[in-house]
Amino acid sequence: MEFLAQNQLYIVMVIVLAIWLGLFAYLFRLDSRLKKLEGKNKN
Amino acid sequence: MAWKIFMGVLLTLVIVLGIGLPMSPHPQTWYELPVIPGLEEKARIIFFHVPTAWLSTLAFLTSMAYAIQYLRKRDPLDDIKSSAAAGLGFVFCVLATLTGAVWAKFNWGSYWNWDPRETSIFVLLLIYGAYFSLRSAVEQEEKRAALSSVYSIIAAVTAPFFIFIMPRIMTGLHPGAKGDPNGAGPVVEFKMAPPMRVIFFASLIGFTLLFIWMFRLRVRTAQLEQAHHAKG
Amino acid sequence: MPGDSTRMSSYARSVMSVFLKDWRSELRTRYAMNALLMFVVTTIAIVLFSLGSEGAPSDALSGMLWTVIFFSAMSGLSRTFVMEEERGTTFTLQLLAPPSAVFFGKLLFNLVLVLGLNAVTILLYLALITGFVIQTLSIFLVAVLLGSLGFAAAATVIAAIIARANTRGTLYPVLSFPVLLPLLLTVINATRLASEGAYFQEAYGEFQILISYIVVVVVVSSMLFEYIWKD
Asked: Under an 8 A CB cutoff, do B161 and C182 touch?
């Protein structure tokens, strides 16, 4: 418990980082899937 | 391609450094952030609140720009872009309002105060809501595009009355209102220590790049959907 | 140039004839007028009952007045376009008059309507709501005039937009409110100044905003109207 209270700020950072990296990964996947679909359409 | 990775790294750094860099009352080293009395650690939210508010305005302007293009050229792609920008703008507007309310709570005591700038972000929210209600109420695509383009232009034209004029006339809590010793103005010239300024502008740039990427993804998705429907 | 004056006057005549057409048809069937007046009376009665014997501070009463005016405007100002859709006369009107003439004709109609409506509302409000007094009449009169102009301008163009949509009734206030809000806030502030007895010069800031709002809205709407109007 003390650890959590002392390091509140770093816990916030980890949470925000996790959300951000998750979002980034999602966008990246979306981007590559779109590229594949667009490639299919061209052919 | 590379710029997306750049943006990803940039924003990751912003998060890590913005939240992680130590604060001390008298910064000794180059990487220490100064403590702002009364705010201390909570000041870090500025790295996220201001960029989201900036983005919602940028998105709105983008939407209006494509609306004008649509009315001039009647290219359906312009309407797709206008609507995509508006959708993103709405999301960032909600984020800006929420982060602003959190900031307001620990800075001025309550979540909402009807300060002119708070009111203007609320009005932006209303405009987005109205824009999407209008779009869902018109079925014919060309009519929908034309009417929503006209509305977004009218809204864009009346909105500045809030953002620029009201805070000048009425005093408010937000920086940039009449009673602010730092001077009134739409973009507040705040005094920020160098390390904070670096992270702040990095955040601004990163978020803008993020917006561009998300915008293009949305447009490409809509285009693929249309092509799919056209094929039958 | 000899042709110009006839062209100008025939344009002016188009505007007037659009206006007169709406005017006469409203006079012929009094339904809309009566409903609007009843709406004003009812709303003021509600305010009266909710205030009871206690008063309210002057800024609250100023705000109340313009809230009543806003909702009356929402009830009445969309008629001019919605009525064309309902009667199926839109297409005919498109053929008979140039788009900007239609716009200005209907704007004129809404202006007359809003001025009349506001006059009734204000008289009733002043008479019935005892806490509300106007100390500086000049500020109040200018504010009402400019406010009415602004209302008419914004309400007319948005009425044109929603006339083509599905859920017209509820959509109208939703679209109008964000656009009208700067006007509302400014005019409420001016009314508050008037009721508190401020000097005429103190309201200059408000008047400037009101005038620029009117100019901007009228100019932009008249330019955009043909995109709404043409099919």
From this structure: yes
Q: Are residues B179 and B119 in the same domain?
A: yes
Backbone angles phi, psi at B33, to 5 degrees: -95, 140
Q: How far from C225 is each of B207, C10, C160, C161, C212, CA to CA, in Å? A: 36, 20, 8, 9, 20
The owner of tokens 């004709």 is C105
Distances B50 to B68, B201, B208 between C-alpha atoms, Å: 27, 10, 12
CA distance C124 to C104: 30
Inter-chain touch B4–A16, beta carbons under 8 Å: no
| Domain interval for residue B202 | 194-232
Q: Is B129 among the domain residues?
A: yes
Instruction: Give CA angle at A8 (A6, A11), nearest 5°.
Output: 125
Do B133 and B206 fall within a single domain? no
Q: B33 forms bridges with which residues in the sheet?
A: B23
For residue B103, being part of any structural domain is answered with yes
Q: Are residues B99 and B175 in the same domain?
A: yes
Burial letters C107-129, b for 16+ CB under 10 A, else e = bbbbbbbbbebbebbbebbeeeb
Does any CB of chain B come closer than 8 Å to the CB of residue A26?
no
Range of the domain at C61: 2-229
Q: In this complex, do B147 and C228 lie within 8 Å of one another by their Cβ atoms?
A: yes
C67, HSE (Cβ side, Cα atoms, 13 Å): 10
Q: Which of residues 169-198 of C touch B (CB under 8 A)?
A: 171, 174-175, 177-179, 181-182, 185, 189
Q: Is B24 left (phi over 0), alpha (psi -120 to 50) or beta?
A: beta
For the purposes of burial, counting CB atoms within 10 Å of the CB of C180, is it exposed (0-12), middle (13-18) or buried (19 or more)? buried
Choose among C162, C213, C228: nearest Cβ to B161: C213
How is residue C200 annotated by DSSP?
G
Q: Which residue has the tokens 């007359």?
A: C112
Query: Hey, are the CB atoms on B19 and A9 less than 8 Å from each other?
Result: yes
Rounded Cα distance, B8 and B155, in Å: 33
B11 touches chain A (CB under 8 A): yes
**Any domain includes B30:** no
pLDDT in tens, chain C (231 residues): 666 677 778 888 888 888 888 888 888 877 778 888 899 999 988 888 888 777 778 778 888 899 999 999 998 888 888 888 877 888 888 888 888 888 999 999 999 999 999 999 999 988 888 778 888 888 899 999 999 999 999 999 999 999 888 777 889 999 999 999 889 988 988 888 888 887 888 778 788 889 999 999 999 999 999 888 876
Task: State phi, psi for B24 to the nearest 5 degrees.
Answer: -145, 150
| C-alpha to C-alpha distance for C94 and C90, rounded to whole angstroms | 6
Q: Looking at this predicted complex, what is its ipTM?
A: 0.87
